[in-house]
Amino acid sequence: MLLIVGLGNPGEKYKGNRHNIGFMAVDAIADFHGFGPEKSKFNGVLREGFMDTPNGRIKAIILKPMTFMNESGRSVQKTAQFYKIPLDKIIVFHDELDLEAGKFRIKLGGGIAGHNGLRSIKQMIGGDFYRARMGIDHPGHKEKVHSHVLSDFAKSEKDWVMALTDACARASELLAMGELNKYQTKVNHLAPAPSSKPRRN
Q1: Catalytic residues
Q2: Whether pLDDT at 16 is above 50
């Protein structure tokens, strides 16, 4: 069983924020695989379902913590504990300032790069979970970071945001099978970052 976590802040006010791209990605994955309806549990919102792969059906839980970003770890810990999900079966989708807008990377463990959601999760369960990093670009100055992550994506960015979250969903059978390098490659192939050079046919 997998625990697929999206990070963000709850409520309409934050819905379109850059900080909420993790919520957007896991919603797309759950919708793509026809997961069940949302249930409020463990300080979060859960959807349960199966992901069909060539290796069979993989059970998965989609979790969006509803605690606000800095307390995300409480919800992740309670959910992982209840379902007995080990750290290496937890994948956390989150915004990443250190990646260009639209770029996607996935890795096991590592630093938290100042991300409060990751910090909270690491404090509660340890750091050896997978981070699905979704690039939102850095505003250039440290003092602008807070307003940058809590601002909505611009209209001009909506296309790549939708393409990236859709790619995360369409490639997700590779995620379910644990083929994480192939997953990263396919997501970037399906949704090249706006700054990437056009692909040659």
Answers
A1: 19
A2: yes
Amino acid at 68: F
Residue 198 has pLDDT above 80, yes or no: no
Question: Is the CATH code 3.40.50.1470 the one for domain 2-190?
Answer: yes
pTM metric for this prediction: 0.94
Q: Is the pLDDT of residue 21 over 60?
A: yes
* Helix (H) / strand (E) containing 125: helix 116-125
Structure tokens at 113: 């790069």
Query: How far is Cα 185 from Cα 163, in angstroms, rounded to an integer?
Result: 15
Sequence spans of domains, the chain: 2-190
CA distances from 98 to 8, 26, 44, 87, 194 (A): 17, 21, 27, 24, 16
Structure-block tokens of residue 44: 């979060």
Which residues, 6+ apart, have CB-to-CB distance to 187 below 8 Å? 104, 164, 167, 168, 171
